[in-house]
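Subject: complex prediction, re-run

Hi both,

The earlier run crashed halfway through, so I resubmitted it with identical inputs.
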Amino acid sequence: MTDYDAIVIGAGHNGLICASYLARAKHTVLVIDARPVPGGCASTREFAENYRVSDCAQWLSQLDKTVVSDLQLGDAGLVLSDPKSTISLQPDASHVTFYGDTVTGTTIGNEDVTDYRNFRSQMRRFAKVLATLYKGRPPKLVERNWTDRITLLKLGLGLKMLGKSHMQDLMRLALINIYDVMNEYFKHPALKSAIALDAITGSTMGPRSPNTVFSYLHKATGEFLSESGTRQVIGGMGALGSALASSAEAAGVEIKLGCAVKTIKKTGHAVSGVELVDGTLFSSKIVVSSADPTTTFKSMLGYAQMEAGMAKRAELYRNRCGTAKLHIALKALPTFTGVDHAQLSQRLIIAPPMDDMETALNPMKYGEISDQHLFDISIPSIDDPSLSPEGHHVLSALVHYVPFSPKVGWDEARHSLTDQLIDEISAYAPDLKSLIVASELVTPADFERTHHVTGGSWHHGELSIDQALMMRPFPGSTQYKTAVEGLYLCGAGAHPGGGLLGLPGRNAAKEIIKGGALA
Amino acid sequence: MSSPTRDTMLLKTPFHSRVEAACALNDWGNWMGYTTPNAYFDVELEYFAVRSTTGVFDLSPMNKYQISGPDAEAYLNRLVTRDVAKIGINRVGYAIWCNDAGQVLDDGTIFRFSDNEFRLCSYQRADDWLAWNSLGFDVTVENVSTDIAALAVQGPTSCTILTLLGCENLNQLKPFGMAHYEFEGRPLMVSRTGFTGDLGYEVWVPPESAEALWDQLFELGRDYLIKPFGSHALELARIEAGFLQANTDFMPAEEVVRVGRTRNPFELGLGWLVDFNKPLFNGRAALAKVKEKGSKYRFVLLDVDGNKPAEHSFIMKNGKVVGTVTSAAWCPTAKANLAYAQLEMPHGVVGDELIAEIYYQRELHWTQLYAPCKVIEAPIFKPARRWQTPAPPH
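This time it finished cleanly. Structure:
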């Protein structure tokens, strides 16, 4: 008799979602997380006294709507903003605004409008095919299994339904880079770079890196999986974590926070439970990890506890992230040149022309600090005054490309880079510096420490085609079942992870229930 | 015309000067990148030295890895399919190792020097695989192939000759045992192991001792009819003795490109080396499934009618091809025409009668022969002296 049917490692969104589904299927589930709050990378934190911010992920654009309705997250307190438009800030204030399929701006001509609409409709076609694959376990290509054959059949049908020319286009584009695709579709540099930014977020890829079309399409699946558009979570991302936790608890899940799992324990050849850092042991029929694959396999299970081919694949799994976050506490709303008050609450991006983006990437590769950065800015306190004292505001920005470990060390680089980043934003918001109460830079190395994501990779592993779909995280441990008996994956390091989708958690639970390990 | 690059194409073992002098036929082959003699003077006479007196084979090209550290035993236990904990200190164990899919990568021997000190001898180069295997273990894996020179000294008079060399009480050494001596101020290790199925030893020395060792062995062994033997004679002896040869009888899984060409241990008749009592070893999960569902092939020894070796023959049953021969030879001591074959299941139980389709040529005339053959228990050559302790005197 075990303490629980299932122990889920990690109370991130996928861990909680997986636990909820398992509990709803009448299984006893314990969720354990090292952090004191639920949500994992969906978290809100007070970074300066009375100033709170989503301290890791800041936008919600892909959360699967089935998960939202199944787990009744609305009833559990999840409130979202309206969809945001994206405003690409230009040095001469000729900003370009994207909303749905429309693009507007003083420099935007009719041709740009048509190009954008055509591009969107083509990418939607492709993303739809991908989204179909995301809703279930990834099919294995070589084994004779009917579930997988049907999935492949659906995929084939989806491709066939694209029609010959669109299918050829997908095959042609899928493995090339976003740089070439942008130059093929657009003339306006701001259009190119705004879209390219979506392709590289959370990665160490530049517009010219292979895989960037795939990562763009991955993001674009959100249109089919989620309530469309990029949204802000009221209360910060942590409110999503809390809603998921209440929903899970309502379903009977037991959640233990603030206690880290030290080891995934085996009895004989199968996993039999976990040991916490304080020495507590819990036994279970299965362990489901939503920690990233490297943390799961290398740190918690240990390479010596699996077969060597698997250890090799786990070791070769790539976790890299060139994205940092800048948090600024402000005593008043800043002025961005050419941006009116209503627009300030939208998604503001600073994406220089693609060649400059590529140039900005180069220093990061060699552990150096770039002269120029890319920003994805939110001032969440406009829609959500609870985040800051009255009349005050918080600004949160995703910043690319920041090295994981700069050669000079973060002790030396942190302060100067923070100042530099503020200067870079100030070029668009002249009064910003005069309003700053406090600021904070969260580097990829900080993410690794605070959110327990190896390499600071919030996608739980680089989102590239060799680590995606039927190869996520690596062959032999796909379909949520690892090669070690009794150990399952349900985090973003499993299909179709990367980002806040919730589907790895949901798909994993479905597979575990179907597989009969808990029967 | 001298060509310095040609000189370095194949390596020379530490015994090369002596081997070259002894190689009357000047018939050389490439064994794992080393210049090695196929035959010294006459394949059959070399073979008979092994069976009747003593044969000496230079096995220096074998890959040797020193494995040491607190996790050395755990490391090896995860690597190979058998239980390494059961190999005592100064004992040697035959082992095979598989990839995660349960397909055989190679076979070899594990020498245990102490609790935390082992040497693995493998047929294939295994640096890469052994390095990946060390992830998560407190272990040092070092390729010591060129640090050790080795001779196989095999045959009925081998114990006597080595005793004359100074290996005291060698006759007390049990099969798969190791004994340590000194030779001209340097360490010399003897293991009662070999690839001939006869009474025999393998002698391991630093390369600096190699030439002197060869000289003294042949000097002291003259009266005991010591002879060097090459790869061809070894092939005869090992087929007769029931040993498999990687790359001949099975393909090391790492080298296989085509689907279905690898083999699991059960398909090679090596299921006895797979210990499911161990909770973890490479290939365990896959092999557990194989054990449940059964394998596709069976590896068998065939006694073939007639005296034409069934090399590369198709094996038929009721006019249908059910397998192929991997190794074949007319074995002089066993006086049997033997062949190893991989047969499709369920064929190949002992006593099964099959047909070998043999083609042979005499003076450009090809003859096709359907030779009846029968599955027999392996090995066919098993002299008492191989297992006797004390080793019988001569």
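The first strand of chain B starts at residue 27 and ends at 31.

- K.
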